[in-house]
Amino acid sequence: MTDTWWLNPCRAIDVSAYEQALARQQQLTKPAGSLGQLEALAVQLAGLQGRVKPSVDRLWIAIFAGDHGVVAEGVSAFPQEVTGQMLHNFVSGGAAISVLARQLDAQLEVVDLGTVTPALKLPGVRHLNLGAGTANFVKGPAMTAAQGRQALQAGRDSVLRALESGAQLFIGGEMGIGNTTAASALACALLDCPVKDLTGPGTGLNAQGVSQKVAVIERALALHAGQRGDALQTLFNLGGFEIVALVGAYLACAQEGVAVLVDGFICTVAALVATHLNPACREWLLFGHRGAEPGHRHVLQSLDTQPLLDLGLRLGEGSGAATAVPLLRLACALHGQMATFAEAAVADRPA
Question: Which of 57, 90, 291, 347: CA 20 to 30 A from 175?
Answer without folding.
Answer: 57
